[in-house]
Design a protein that fits this description.
Number of strands: 11
Largest sheet: 7 strands, mixed
Radius of gyration: 21 Å
Strand order of the largest sheet: 5-4-3-6-9-11-10
Strand content: 15-25%
Length: about 280
């Protein structure tokens, strides 16, 4: 089978199974199987696939057709211009989380040697992006899942960002009082009661504890805000990625904090809640 014929077949399979962006998915999986870039696909459409390549591509297309995210098939996802390893043990990094990183960098750049804690680090994408941009910072990455931290540590090694310190703990337990200048988090904020509104592939394949924050959703956010009051230095900053309907709730939860505001995305949707400890 020639490369172009395999791509046509994959696009047809994805269309039959209602997989979004069928051509993009077909090309992404082919690049993964062949270990090549997109230019190679267009330069050599007549290339004959080996039996091993055909088998691997067929299996990858079958997995994607039944809903497995492409990132879990390839094992990679780009975030903040860095290539991250991902597995079903971690949430797939999303572009909107870059607003969290951008806001943290803006605040940290006004400090000499900021101490930053990333709560719920998962793949380590936020902590490692911050470490990459802030060489004078001391960055800590926290997760309750040892499996997630295994992926995060592997990413730190691959990206040569090994100054980040990793901790297996629940939210901020174990950190001393007035330790950090900045706490960032993309916590699970979807309620169990909203499970039917979550994309099927997210619900079925991404880690439950990284998506759902409790029966109603904001339970972990409340705990985070409470613990951050203890761990942040006076004047320290808390940055939380939030759901698109949660800004009124966060405004209420942060009413005892200073300089509370929300960072919006390009569509004007509040993405990051920001507050400063009194």
């Amino acid at each position: 089978m020639q490369l172009r014929d395999a791509l046509r077949w994959a696009v047809s399979e994805f269309e039959k199974n209602a997989v979004g962006s069928p051509r993009l998915n077909a090309e992404t999986l082919m690049m993964f199987v062949l270990g090549c870039n997109r230019a190679h696909l267009y330069a050599y459409p007549e290339r004959e696939l080996t039996d091993d390549e055909k088998q691997r591509y067929t299996e990858a297309v079958a997995d994607r057709s039944r809903g497995v995210p492409a990132q879990y098939i390839t094992g990679h996802q780009e975030f903040w211009g860095l290539d991250f390893l991902v597995s079903p043990s971690v949430l797939i990094p999303r572009p909107e989380t870059e607003h969290l990183v951008e806001t943290a960098i803006e605040i940290a750049n006004k400090m000499d040697h900021p101490v930053i804690i990333d709560v719920g680090t998962g793949s380590g994408c936020v902590a490692l992006a911050l470490e990459n941009e802030l060489p004078r910072a001391e960055v800590h990455a926290v997760d309750l899942s040892p499996e997630a931290l295994e992926i995060a540590r592997a990413n730190a090694a691959r990206l040569r960002l090994e100054r980040v310190r990793f901790h297996v703990t629940d939210i901020l337990q174990g950190f001393p009082e007035e330790f950090a200048d900045i706490i960032v988090s993309n916590p699970p904020y979807v309620g169990e009661c909203e499970a039917d509104k979550v994309q099927a592939q997210v619900r079925r394949y991404e880690p439950h504890m990284a998506v759902f924050g409790g029966p109603e959703g904001p339970e972990l956010i409340r705990k985070l805000i409470d613990q951050a009051q203890r761990v942040l230095k006076s004047g320290g900053w808390l940055l939380i990625e939030i759901g698109y309907t949660q800004s009124p709730l966060l405004e209420e939860l942060l009413k005892a904090w200073q300089d509370v505001h929300f960072v919006t995305d390009l569509q004007g949707i509040p993405r990051v809640a920001v507050g400063r400890k009194l």
